[in-house]
Amino acid sequence: MVARIVLTVLALVGVLSAPVASAGAADAKNFDPGYIISDSEFYDWDSMTAPQVQSFIKGVNPRCVAGPDGTPCLQDYTENTPNTPARSGCAAHVGRAGESASKIIADVAAECRINPKVFIVLLQKEQGLVLATGSQLTAQRYERATGLSCPDGPDGQPICDPAHGGFYKQVRGAGERFNDYRDKPAVYKNYRPGKTWNISYHPNAACGTGPVFVQNMATTLLYTYTPYQPNRAALNNLYGTGDSCSTYGNRNFWRYYVDWFGTPTPDNCIAAGTCQFFLVNDWTTTQARLGVRITNAPAGTPLAGTWASGAPESVGVRADATMYLRTDHTSGPASIVYRYGRPGDDVFVGDWNGDGIDTPAVRRGNTWYLTNTVGAAYADVQFTFGRVGDKVLVGDWDGDGVDTPAVRRGNTVFQSNSFAGGYAEHSYTYGRVADEVLVGDWDGDGRDTLGVRRGNSYYLKNTTTSGVADIVMSYGRATDRVVVGDWDGNGTDTLGVYRP
Known about the structure:
Elements: H1 8-11, H2 39-42, H3 50-60, E1 78-79, E2 99-100, H4 101-112, H5 116-127, H6 139-143, H7 167-183, E3 195-200, E4 209-214, H8 217-225, H9 232-236, H10 249-261, H11 268-272, E5 277-279, E6 290-292, E7 301-305, E8 314-319, E9 322-325, E10 336-339, E11 346-350, E12 359-364, E13 367-370, E14 381-384, E15 391-395, E16 404-409, E17 412-415, E18 426-429, E19 436-440, E20 449-454, E21 457-460, E22 471-474, E23 481-485, E24 494-498
Antiparallel strand pairs: 1-2, 3-4, 5-6, 5-24, 7-8, 8-9, 9-10, 11-12, 12-13, 13-14, 15-16, 16-17, 17-18, 19-20, 20-21, 21-22, 23-24
Helix pairs in contact: 3-4, 4-7, 5-10, 7-8
């Protein structure tokens, strides 16, 4: 566990120049110690490109000058980065000569699937590097850029591990550490979401603790990294100092985020439990990272698909014969609304022509009616496949980019790679007769395979064969309805649950 105030003197505004309030000044009454940043905001890894990071760093500190010893401003800093293997939920990094700070931030954000804004704020919260200028710029600040492995000593000053020294190692190490905190609850047991924790105000035990109900995983990660909450004195003087029991790390993280990027908690439906959809981006966590509520959609059948060119895979609801489709992962009214089929039809969605857009099909008896056009009212393709009582599945079974049908009888699956009807091209058994069946590309190889659900446990297979599951995971409640999609665009399908 990283335990520190983290260079308290640097965290006190007034030592460094005041932040540029580009997104609106923070108001302490909006600070919630149990919900500092939302999961969707924390994991929005592609929110900024490297040029955008560079533009932000230059824009927020436009009059920066190098330190007296030549230590460069953050906007001018470069470093030779090493080859780094994939680990701790972060992809491998290919080392480069002369890589800029902004490129390192964007690279690590993409490799570790963490918002680059989180790293920008972390650099300021820990070492003041974003706003530092002149004599405030020292080599030591780059060496300890994110405060990683720099716990406070008895005198409140950090004791840093030189093995983690250097700008790239600090940023990459912070990303890996955040992922470890999330994925290793047996090791990092404190501050887990959904519980009330007595969190200290200061390393001095005499300053006491206060109860905090931690609402989400991203807030858990911040407290695991810096295990103190601001006291009332720190919040009453949000842009200054508090008292002898004040710490500023998590206060300053929140304050800088608000000042620079706006609210870090835009998806309040997760914290409030009012989302219709709770989505995860991997197979290692049981905490939703994305929450969506389609505000004008009544309860109905949950859907998942890519509804528009350039949009991420997202969710929708079909109520009666009307489709309510949301083209991003935020809450709001449906982006696309149209009717297809009849109220009593079974409805499925898929990419029937390989254009990258999912459209609906309905099945009546064993007759399928497909459309390839969003908003169309009439079918483009009609065919028969399977029997009236079959359980219907849809997937890209051969990796050609086109979804085609399958049916399940008992626990035997019959797959087709065309819309010609007739006999199946491939059949096999998987799971138990009573299982709920899911379809997705669980390993990113371009081919859809099956999973089964028993209660809230999932057993996923990466090949269209019988045998034991390749992935086993528990998620959500046994009463949830389930959707499957590639929510973060990494080629791998993961889970979502629907609670209307």
